[in-house]
Amino acid sequence: MTNAMKRNPRGGSGPRAALYALGILVAIMAAVLVKTTAIDNNGLAKSANLTSYNPLTVAPVSNMTGNTGMPIAPLAPTATDSQTTPFPVITWTAIGLPPGLTISRSSGLVTGTPQLAGTYQVTITAKDNARPPTYGSTSFNWYIGNMAPTVTQVAPVVSQGVGGIRVVIIGKNFANASAVHFGTVDAGSITVNRAGTKIVTYAPPETAGTVDVTVTAMGGTSAAVAGDQFTYLAPHISLVATSTGTVNGGTRVRISGTGLAGATSVSFGGQSSAEFTVRHNGTLLTAVAPGGSVGTVTIVVVTPGGTTSSSGHNDFTYVIPLPPAPKVGKHHK
Q1: pLDDT tens readout for residues 264-273
Q2: Do the beta carbons of residue 202 and residue 277 sit within 8 Å?
Q3: b/e string for 208-237 if b means 16 or more Cβ within 10 A?
Q4: Global confidence as pTM
């Protein structure tokens, strides 16, 4: 029996002496708060918290900043722990990380791309492999700014379905923009000013209707708003200048309207014209009528923006050709 076990304030070597020796042992152990239970001289169980002097410590992390849609510089927290042998094994967790960021349980490395702007209170915790384990943590704020592009105005706001019209997009956070979409259709080539507030592009072909013009940049993709809407017009026939032709076909028919540019087919009562041309920004189309049967048919023009509907002004009437006029003979005196 050791001297520590022999010495007792009241004499003897009972449980009080054992508890005293245990306190000395804990003082030289690695840092951890341990709850222990002993039996006193009266036979009652007593609990005590014993604190050592080598705690698991996570180094402080300064407040962090970032922007939506832009990957963060990886954050690597560090911890000091001499409690376990031959070396500590640290497991890392975090609460309050901005959406889009994750922490590695084995290395503590925080990586990712923030998805939502705001101020986040983050706590990173380390746990070692002692028995019982020791914990250490650090807390800080992480501010995420909103760098997502925003469209406030589109000019012009109307185009024919064939596309090709020059469009100016006004907004913010357009720097390093990678794409512009009209609805789901990629506009292709884009030009961004130095301030990141204006984009010049050309409307791609699209079917008739209203779509949102969205911009994709490092900060993400712009949300749909009323100011980004762009309308494609459906093709429309307003006048058939040459509204009658023979059943033999071959009549050159002049058709006026809007949105006729880029026409891919022209039909007369379902019979396709073999020859047609469009001029004057899609407002005038000339087609050669195919052969047909006597009666009135509907002219239909198909374009990238859609198909013309019956307007009451797109009829064409087939007639039987007139017989040739009789030749007038010469009279001899």
Answers
A1: 999 999 999 9
A2: no
A3: beebbbbbbbbbbebeeeebbebebbbbbb
A4: 0.60
